[in-house]
Amino acid sequence: MRKLLTVLVGFLMVVPTVAAAKPDAGRPERPLTVMTYNIHHGAGIDGVLDLERIAVLIEQSGADVIGLQEVDRHWDVRSNWVDQPAWFAQRLNMHYAYAANLDLPPVNPGEPRRQYGTAILSKYPIKDFTNTLLPLYPTGEQRGLAVAKIKVRGADLRFANTHLTSNNNAERLEQAQKVVELLGKSKTPTLLVGDLNATPEAPEIKTLTAVYDDTWTEVGVGPGYTIEAGNPTKRIDFQLHSAGLRPVKAAVPVTPASDHLPVVATFALR
Predict the structure, then answer these.
(1) Residues 133, 136, 138, CA angle at the centre, nearest 5°?
(2) Can you give the pTM of this predicted structure?
């Protein structure tokens, strides 16, 4: 009888642990491949403007969601006045959202406005999209934080894309602080990608990695350098993530299509 009671007590002690584990254990993981890429308005290190080779690179990567920086929309002759985000979306058969951080009037009345900024491409529907302008110093260039809500096979994903300033550390730190403030605390799995124009040890990057995990340090192999593309010596392009996303692998494909190299990572999305 005493042995039976001991077995029953042991069983009762195990049950709550198993029950507590069930919700997480029963939640399916969805594979998700993500790219971040500063495309330099489509001009490569060879000086050639070629959107097609960028599109092929995206196809070959298998990326489901892409954050692009330095994207022109009817900007000027340097990109042949092309609406680049619309071109990529049509070429790749993807949904897209565009954030015009620079928005200028047309050269001639009646023509489209001249815009420059960031874009998000997605194989999955973009349910909501916002772009918030970040702190700007008098001699700086306007930057923004683009945030899309995307439904990935029934799971919610918050995807943020940014391009921080390149020439002022204090301005960039304020921008990073604003990004943390804007994204806030959320239970929705969040990815923050972009050209952050600083290396991992910089205060502005540490401001972000205090909140979000650095995918490359978790699963990347090697230094992960992304600039300059011909002979990269610095890692300034990042994919950061919150809970709910488990990184599986990350790589930096070599390509001459821009002055940056892209970062491609695969996650398991819960």
Answers:
(1) 145
(2) 0.90
